[in-house]
Amino acid sequence: MWELVSLDMYQTFIENSPDAIVLIPLNGDAIEMNQAVYHMFGYTKEELKSKKFSDMLLPTHMEMVMKQIELASQGTSNTFKAEAQHKNGNLFHIQVTLNPLIEEGLVKGVFCVARNMTELVNMRETLNETTDRLSALFESTADAIEILDLDGHVIDVNPAFEGLYGWSIDEIKGEFLPTIPQNRFLEAKSLIEQIKAGDPVVQYETVCVKKNEETLEISLTLSPIHNKNGDLVGFSGITRDISKRKNLERLLKISEERYRKLVELSPTGIVVHRNNEILYANDAVQKLFAVDNAVGSSIFDYIHPRFQEFTESRLSRIAEGSPIEFVNLKLVRKDGEHLYANIGTMKIPYDNETAYLAMFHDVTEYKKMKRDLQESRNSYSELLKMSPLPIYVQCDGIIKYMNEAGAKALGFNHPKELIGKSILNYYHPDSRKNVEERMIRAFKNGFDEDDRFEHQMIRANGTEFTTEVSATVTKFFGSPAIQVIFRDITERKQAEEALRASEENYRLMADNMTDLVSIVDESGLMRYASPSHAAVLGHSPDFYLGKSAFEVVHPEDLPYMMSEFEQILRSNESRVAEFRHKHADGSWIWVEAKGKIFMDQKTSERRIIIVSRDVMERKALQEKLNHMAYHDALTDLPNRMYFQDKVEETIKHSVKNNEKFALLYMDLDKFKDINDQYGHAIGDQVLIQFAEKVQTCLRKTDTIARQGGDEFTLLIPNINAENDAVVCAELILELFDEPWEVRGHLIQTSTSIGIAYYPQTGNDYIEILKHADMAMYDSKQQGKNRMSIS
């Protein structure tokens, strides 16, 4: 048959072969090659005439290639792999076959066939990488994975399986899967047959046994394993421990009965009514209505006439499918007394018919406290302004706030004259370096509660005076700041100087000071008490003579004061302390006392002189200032600074306890329209009521804060699932589906909410807040009155 193949046919085959073919004669004639060679290496026929093998093969392969050609020239066929170089510099893989050309028993040349293997090599490398990744997934996944043959015998298991069940692969390889209890063998065989029949097994719930004979509930997914021919050769099983979830489901079922009892015993008033007739009322609501039995009476018997039309309209909306809402209504008890309640109503099935369940929370006392708190806030703002204690706040040494007493103390007519100036301008040059150092240390370490500093200050007219300064680190509009209370103690310092010069002069001055002056000996017995004790503490000076100074100290402060007393005796240095001093009427007065050692000239014995003053007003003011620093003036909610501290504290707690939390960013929709239409007074009330309504949806552990304007933030710590935050957001959105009354106006607004989860959106406050803010703006852009998740 081969004799029928002509030379032309051979040449045609060689020329059109996709493989590169080269004829290498041994007699020195020119090398012949087909078109595939030019295509494979990128050279033209003319260019290849001047090329050598070394120009197209890697130098590291040349020695091996030449040896293979030498073997072929000696009559031995061979095949090898090498790397070649294209004209453009790219490397590619080739497989070369060399066959000797023999004529009349002599080798006349070498027939070379080269095939480009680059794509195959790359495919093998990719396959190896894929195999490695699958192997890594098998080894690292948290789910238990077992590989079984068709009879259910173990071929392989991953580390998660060993960790969950306790058996190693060496213990169970080739054995029937030991995790199946004996009483479930038939069930297991049925699942295997189901897979063989082509029916999938997905998230099948059953019970398995561990090596230590403990049982656990699992979710099982079985998948078939086929070979390259498509034949079924085994199964893979993925199991997940669901014991905790199943236990929670059982506990939930048990708790349903408890909830029924909770309704009966709930302090929240609960009423079920239909067609306005009360069908059920728990004890709490009957106590609220001041009746023995409310069943059978009309619900409107207890609604104030001014709110009855609104209530009828509200019930109609709920009947049409509107969600639950809580509103404040005025009620009338059976005895005629008026009260306020926060009422939420929903449609429910009751005795196979539609009825309405209403929940009543008595908020009468809350509304009274709210009014009192607003009055207190207004009074406090005026108190800070009119406080006799000089107070200023500085940031980086620049005065940001100064009250009227502070301006007066420094010789100015109005606080505005000091705002923006350096506070160091009003300290004596000798004190400025010390003040600057204390400021730097304070921002790093803060101030101790009892720290008191004495400095020389300068008034506007250049006169000097001595001050006693107490300070605390705070924030002023988000920036680190120091709040300082300073007091002119020039007279006191002069009195102390006079005391050191002359005991008689001291006594004359002490007897006429409003501060409390006392002298005690080294055993703590009182040797002198100034007349001011009678005015401040209610006892005459004689009452104290010969008694222990510690008898009038509050028991909780006694260890601290005894320690301070010992420090003065040991160090001979002055000490300042605050403690509670007993008044003649049995009450306790906060006093600030400064003690210093001196030598009694008459007895040559050491004594301690103590100068004290009533600081009740300052303590109260300090507490109010601290509250204001962390709370919003309008809504009394925590402010941005408080909220940031709370979130950062929650992050630390969540890291330690492996917990999650959610941060919600809320913005009132169309709030500017409300301000424009009704004025800022109504707008302020809308913000206040918005905050109150949102708080009805929260747990005690949740924290809501006002960021500023109409923006609020909400922290929901320790969530079990992301849906917890979504449910809370849905409740908040539902609160504002209907208008509510604000000073005689029905206000219709809504809110847009953004939700960010920790740790998915970041590990620090700024990053999480940014994600929540961006999600809130997504809600705005999607049409408002909705929530978005970052």
Structure description:
39% of the residues lie in helices and 30% in strands. By secondary structure, the protein is of the alpha+beta class. A five-stranded antiparallel sheet has the order 2-1-5-4-3, with helices on both faces. Strands 7-6-10-9-8 form a five-stranded antiparallel sheet, with helices on both faces. A five-stranded antiparallel sheet has the order 12-11-15-14-13, sandwiched between helices. Residues 1-5 have low confidence and may be disordered.
Summarize the structure.
This protein is α+β, with helices and mostly antiparallel strands. The chain is extended, with a radius of gyration of 45 Å.
Entry keywords:
5-stranded antiparallel beta sheet, disordered N terminus, alpha+beta, 32 strands, 39% helix
Query: How do the strands of the widest beta sheet line up side by side?
Result: 2-1-5-4-3
pLDDT below 50 for ≥5 consecutive residues: which ranges?
1-5
Radius of gyration (Å): 45 Å
The helix tally amounts to 26
- Please describe the biggest sheet, giving its number of strands, its sense, and whether it closes into a barrel: 5 strands, antiparallel
How many β-strands, per DSSP?
32
Tell me the distance between the termini. 77 Å
Strand fraction: 25-35%
Shape: extended
Helix content: 25-40%
Secondary-structure class: alpha+beta
Average pLDDT confidence is 85
Topology:
Elements: H1 7-16, E1 20-25, E2 32-33, H2 35-41, H3 45-49, H4 53-56, H5 59-73, E3 78-85, E4 91-103, E5 106-116, H6 118-140, E6 144-148, E7 154-157, H7 159-165, H8 169-172, H9 185-196, E8 201-209, E9 215-226, E10 232-241, H10 243-265, E11 269-274, E12 277-281, H11 283-289, H12 305-319, E13 325-332, E14 338-350, E15 353-362, H13 364-386, E16 391-395, E17 398-402, H14 404-409, H15 429-445, E18 453-458, E19 464-476, E20 479-488, H16 490-501, H17 503-511, E21 516-521, E22 526-529, H18 532-537, H19 541-544, H20 558-571, E23 575-582, E24 588-599, E25 606-614, H21 616-629, H22 640-657, E26 661-669, H23 671-678, H24 680-695, E27 703-708, E28 711-716, H25 722-735, E29 740-742, E30 745-747, E31 750-758, H26 765-781, E32 787-789
Parallel strand pairs: 31-32
Antiparallel strand pairs: 1-2, 1-5, 3-4, 4-5, 6-7, 6-10, 8-9, 9-10, 11-12, 11-15, 13-14, 14-15, 16-17, 16-20, 18-19, 19-20, 21-22, 21-25, 23-24, 24-25, 26-28, 26-31, 27-28, 29-30
Helix pairs in contact: 16-17, 23-24
